[in-house]
Specification:
Length: 140
């Protein structure tokens, strides 16, 4: 079982997208976050009915993994596949299950569904980007 950082009690959940937008093993929702104050990207996808979210950062080399924007799963839609060197991660917990990621694991984010929406619960280390912040360098 992966460790998901507990949400901060003083931080409101952030609505990410309508739950219906995350189709089973479909395109992920990608958004900007601040990890310890630094710009980063996260993604949420639906796998076996559950919404899972991780930082978009490979364990092998700290780079974004999607082979097209929001496309993280391999062609058979079994694993999260890093587009750079082919590391494979178990979608349900982010554990490395193949390729050059060793015993690594993606960094999970706490997400949930309610009232037809997917919500993210920020943690102490992974926070929302303030509305007045300049766009991150990695933004399109
Ligand atoms: S950067 Fe992801 S497998 Fe190398």
């Amino acid at each position: 079982m992966s460790h998901v950082a507990a949400p901060e009690p003083d931080v409101e959940p952030e609505a990410l997208c309508a739950a219906a937008e995350l189709e089973e093993r479909g395109r992920a929702w990608v958004w900007d976050v601040l990890e310890c104050g630094r710009p980063a990207r996260a993604f949420a996808l639906r796998f076996d009915g559950e919404v899972r979210a991780y930082l978009n950062r490979c364990v092998h080399v700290p780079t974004e993994m999607d082979w097209q924007p929001g496309e993280f799963l391999d062609i058979e839609k079994r694993v999260i596949l890093c587009s750079i060197h082919g590391a494979e991660y178990e979608p349900s917990d982010g554990r490395c299950v193949g390729g050059p990621c060793g015993r690594g694991q993606l960094t999970p984010l706490h997400v949930g569904e309610s009232d037809g929406w997917v919500h993210w619960y920020p943690s102490r280390d992974i926070r929302p980007v303030p509305f007045d912040a300049p766009p991150s360098e990695s933004s399109p």
